[in-house]
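Summary for the steering committee. The consortium agreed at its last meeting that each partner would contribute one worked example illustrating the joint modelling workflow. Our contribution is presented below. We chose a case with several input lines so that the handling of multiple components could be demonstrated. No manual editing was applied between input and output; the record is shown as generated.
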Amino acid sequence: MTAQRKWQLWRTGVFLAALAPLVLWSGQVASNAAGPEPGRYLLLNIGLGGLWMLLLTLSLTPLTKLTRWKGFALIRRQLGLWTLAYASLHLLSYALFILGLDWAMLGSELIERPYILVGLLALIGLVALGATSNRWSMRRLGKRWKPLHKLSYPILGLILLHFFWGVRADLGEWTLYATASALIMATRLPPVARRLPRLRQRLISA
Ligand code: HEM
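What follows is the complete predicted structure of the assembly.
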């Protein structure tokens, strides 16, 4: 098998793995296995799926530094776009199942649940990143591309705030995601980032 074919298979495998949860949840809703509130079931699961996608995307740079495996870098754009896809479907589930497409309800909803505005801000940020993740934008933006895409860090913060604000009772799950986010962000701190390649050397020689 040629190297190109191997990477193509890897990317297709990642695509199918990212699509699988959506197929699974839709199947559960279709077969009445999604509990008494299937719309809410979809909304919450897809929201969490979006957070997972963003965390996975942000893990790829430290993983590449640690392993030097090209495969991680090859799926960065794809997972970034999956984050946007999940976030958009989360908004769609909200519009369909919570608002029932009754846009007049939106005003009172925003007063009652202001965390929705925080989610919306995060989604706008994800759209900006998705729209500039192609080669043409990379070339046009040049040196500004990297700082722009570091917007993903405050976006992660907004999503955690949106999640925290929306959850009123059990904060255990939120704490797990916040801890994972803090660990992933810590790998970007210069003293930690510098040590990652050295850690790799140590792991190889151990
Ligand atoms: C367009 C803007 C958005 C709207 C209208 C929206 C709406 C909502 C609503 C209504 C909830 C349910 C809160 C509850 O009652 O427990 C929720 C939860 C959540 N949303 Fe969003 N959201 C938006 C953007 C986002 C984005 C961009 C993400 C991440 C990619 C996200 C991730 C989450 C997560 C992780 C939860 C908590 C799920 C859980 O409790 O299991 N949301 N959102």
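The chain has a mean pLDDT of 95. The CA atoms of residues 167 and 173 lie 10 Å apart.
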